[in-house]
Amino acid sequence: QTKTGIALLYDEVSENAYDIRLKLTKEVLTIQKQDVVCVSGSDHSAHHRTVTLRRQPVGGLGLSIKGGAEHKVPVVISKIFKDQAAEQTGMLFIGDAIIQVNGINVESATHEEVVHLLRNAGDEVTITVQYLREAPSFLKLPLGSPGPSSDHSSGTSSPLFDSGLHLNGNSTNTAPSSPSSPIANEPKYEKRWLDTLSVPLSMARISRYKTGTDKLRSNAFEVLALDGVSTGILQFYTAQESADWLRAMSTNISDLTLQNMKMANKCCSPSDQVIHMGWVNERLEGTDSSQLYKFKFLALKGSSFYIFSTPPTVSLYWVRAEKIYNLCEVLFKIHKLWLADDCWLQANFYLGIHQDFDFEDQRPYCFSVMVGHGKSHYFNVELGSELAVWEKSFQRAIFLEVQRTGSKTYMCSWQGDTLCFTVDFALGFTCFDSKTKNVLWRFKFSQLKGSSDDGKTRVKLLFQNLDTKQIETKELEFQDLTAVLHCIHSFIAAKVASVDPVFIDSQSIARKYMYSN
């Protein structure tokens, strides 16, 4: 998507926001700030401009001012009136900070002091200005062209209101003075939007939260490039604008990620393809609240689920993953969705295994990936559509791995005997002696009627005998019981999907709730 619009750049240190323009293309987000540039003539000072105004009997200097030292900002020109003295010079612009008045420096002056100086400066006023690129938004400076000649400014001087009418002063001239106009050889100036920062969107990430916390920024977010360069906090005037920009940028980042996946897959075997990858936030358990979340890059590739601190931009970097798990032995679970009526949905995707999480954080679109030995990773994404993609991608990656693998065998024991337990996509469950290889029992997936476990090492599997219709209980002990239970779930789900894919789609929590709302 391509998009252009006005936004604010929020400075967390000064707590001020500045007008900027955003330009979004397929590959880059560009931030522009307004500045005054010399378009012709010799520009002796790129930053400062000195202009002489002739006060007119009607309209005075033809400008209004705002700001002052009491608000920790310089006095700036807030209005320039059409066909009056300031506009006729062609060298003054809304947003110009007044540096000097008739040679007197006013950079640290209050609003009232500058008003008094301009009022009593005589019929010819020489001012030196410099465009204030980061004018705080509380000044509410217009971004457009000069306004109409009528001035409805407040007659009372105030730093946050336009002071204009009283700048006429006490002119001694009774006849109209000659208008202020640019001299032939004077440089010509224009106010333009200039590029100040370009952020590549390939492998970029977006955050609506204050760094590391679960505190949501109001109508604002930050975009960070792969190399760590940040846009700063982009703030929008309405929630709708913020949502539109968030979706547009996320779409472009996703499209570029898809391109990167296709490029990576050209170098990978058919059994080692990248199914999906992208940025998430991982909740850090047992840490102080200021570092509650951290960016992580996840990838589903071949037989494995990868967790990275930075994306694997080249094939050699895949070995640098912080964690690598076999896809047959993980369990994807959705925890939170934000519905249209702003209520929370707590969803348990798999009822056979239960694990409690602390849900005090206020982030929507949360999911966990449960791994071996009862451990879990808890993640959050920015959009409901991203959550739906992760759900579908995990499902697809796990099903493909089950079909490729065909079977998984685990060492186990019961009553002192060392056994092997195999989960087979075609045959179901088989238990055999690890030494003699003699099969002790075998059941189809459809014969499994229930299970229970002690949460540690021991599990009871309840099978129905096809001949007697009686339930037979088989007890086994595993070193990593969680991984085995996840594997059983993966194989059964893949088996159901191969028989009835429509049923599996109907169980999609994220797609069901996000798209219906």
Automatic annotation (TrEMBL):
The keyword Cytoplasm applies. Signal peptide: none annotated. Residues 143-186 are annotated as: Disordered. Its main location: cytoplasm. Transmembrane segments: none annotated. GO terms for molecular function: actin binding; structural molecule activity. Residues 143-160 have a biased composition (Low complexity). One of its GO terms (cellular component) is syntrophin complex. Residues 50-133 form the PDZ domain. The keyword Cytoplasm applies. Keywords: Actin-binding, Cytoplasm, Cytoskeleton. InterPro entries: PDZ, PDZ_sf, PH-like_dom_sf, Syntrophin, Syntrophin_4th. It holds the Pfam family Syntrophin_4th. It is found in: Cytoplasm, Cytoskeleton. Belongs to the syntrophin family. This is SNTG2 protein. The gene is Sntg2.
